[in-house]
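User: Structure tokens for this complex, please. No commentary.
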Amino acid sequence: EAGVTQSPTHLIKTRGQQATLRCSPISGHTSVYWYQQALGLGLQFLLWYDEGEERNRGNFPPRFSGRQFPNYSSELNVNALELEDSALYLCASSYSGTSFREQFFGPGTRLTVL
Amino acid sequence: QKEVEQNSGPLSVPEGAIASLNCTYSDRGSQSFFWYRQYSGKSPELIMFIYSNGDKEDGRFTAQLNKASQYVSLLIRDSQPSDSATYLCAVNRAGGSYIPTFGRGTSLIVHP
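Assistant:
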């Protein structure tokens, strides 16, 4: 069974630009979660999509946005990039409708903002 | 505010010893508990999950849950240098729109 995939692996942008990160969940999973992990910090929850809709959002500014497509893949967009947006962005997927939601992570996208 | 606390470490143990990693949580409504292993520069990998009080064993790993004390631990028996990583504890409520809360992780170093 294929795991969660993310692209690109690395992304280098300059301040003020926009970044688009992509995620494909495990087959059968309909929930996708996005996390930011800055150097030395824990996982910070960004967004949760389930069945095509945004279900919850972490404490991040509106320039962090995303969507989930009919095939349950997801996209994270970061507008007006700032230096502090440099981090590892992790996508995780899980089954929907289960009570306990164990999440499986993709390999991440390393975003560097210069 | 839901909090999950872990000692950041590093926890250093000799090869072959038992490593004990601890996690406390503040939300009494928590019902599902997860341990992830994260190697440096890599993504978290699910090791174990536990829902009921008591112990759950899987190979060299044992998760222990005590809901009354709001405490979950991970024991790694016969520790190997390849176990050296950061271990993340995650806690969640059942159902609804709840998002797991992750601890900051404990760094484990297993030295030969």
